[in-house]
Amino acid sequence: MNIQTTRITELLGIKYPIIQGGMAWIAEHTLASAVSNAGGLGLIAGGSAPIDYLREQIRLTKEAVGSKPFGVNIMLMSPNAEDLAQLVIDEKVPVVTTGAGNPGKFMAAWKEAGIKVIPVIPSVALAKRMERAGADAVVAEGTESGGHIGENTTMCLVPQVADAVSIPVIAAGGIADGRGIAASFMLGAEGVQLGTRFLAAEECQIHPTYKQLVIDAKDTDSIVTGRTTGHPCRNVKTKFSKKLASGEMNGTLTPDEFEKITLGSLRKAVQDGNLEEGSFLCGAIAGLVKKTEPAKDMIEEMFTQAQEILSR
Ligand code: TUI
Predict the structure, then answer these.
(1) Phi then psi for 277, rounded to 5 degrees?
(2) Which terminus of the chain is more exposed, N or C, with fewer CB under 10 A?
(3) For residues 127-152, b (16+ Cβ closer than 10 Å) or e, as one string?
(4) How confident is the model at residue 4 (pLDDT cuts 50, 70, 90)?
(5) Is 42 helix (H, G, I), strand (E, B) or coil?
(6) Whose CA is nearest to atom 22 of ligand 1?
(7) Are 213 and 225 in contact (CB under 8 A)?
(8) What was the pLDDT predicted at 2?
(9) Where are the domains of the chain?
């Protein structure tokens, strides 16, 4: 099996079928362009950023990658999702991924502009809806992922989505090395999306405290908070996230109080490394991430390993 020529490499015009997660507050031009220049698809996060900042990020990425493709992730719960949806058209961004909602109402305009659209979905029903709406591929994201998550695991979700749709499926959640990539292909995926491993990339400009938390994390060091608000989120276990989770569990923290306490907490983690009030989003696979290195080395090593496993 040759995993380097799939419908995803062909659709996107990339060397390796790997997408970098569009991590809100984290995925900016240095990481996105390092991944795209290494032969994957780098993404800029359109999560919570003001429109002018995002335009600048897109322009810097274009300068750095030349003719190589890159993308923008639009977090649909973001208050400026409408403006971002227009910005990607104006800036002729080649690929858009979406998260945390249904991008149906933007689809026609994006397709008209020639944008490749890849929604991130946590269920078979949404995958089918996205295929009907004209998506070029879907990212099937398991609950092992960092950040805002669905309920189904990658192991269960990916083969069911692959059976349910004809468009190519990209697996996400719990993948951080060549074994995870090989397994994803065995489950029917034709590409992978990784977030947590790229948190440790040299080009990822998160606060050093955040990077170290990910590198030091072991298998049991992620925790899900926000279940009571309807927006469950996987984070590194810290005093803060443990306090949130136990408050939710024993009913001493109402959903409103939770929202108030966590407002701005991702920015506090990413920019300030604030252990008292920051939400350090990360996937359950953080225990496998051991060192900082260039994104290019990560990608080349992972695909060499995956290809070797699949050739055995
Ligand atoms: O979106 C993500 N991961 C994220 S977004 C984020 S920022 C955030 N900030 C505050 C609260 C919540 C998040 C951090 N991590 N992953 C993709 C993803 N999409 N996971 C789950 C979904 C999803 C959920 C519901 C996709 C579609 C959907 O549709 C519901 C509907 O409208 O039918």
Answers:
(1) -135, 10
(2) C
(3) bebbbebebbbbbbbbbbbbbbbbeb
(4) confident
(5) strand
(6) 100
(7) no
(8) 84
(9) 7-204+290-311, 218-281
DSSP label at residue 28:
-
- Residue pair 178/228 in contact (Cβ under 8 Å)? The answer is no
If you take atom 15 of ligand 1, which residue's CA is the nearest one? 147
The CATH architecture one would assign to domain 7-204+290-311 is: Alpha-Beta Barrel (3.20)
Which residues have a Cβ under 8 Å from the Cβ of 230 and sit 6 or more positions away? 255
Mean pLDDT estimate for the chain: 97
CA of 149 to the centre of ligand 1 (A): 6
Q: What is the pLDDT of residues 86-142, one digit of tens each?
A: 999 999 999 999 999 999 999 999 999 999 999 999 999 999 999 999 999 999 999
Looking at ligand 1, which residue's alpha carbon is closest to its atom 13? 148
Greatest C-alpha distance within the chain: 54
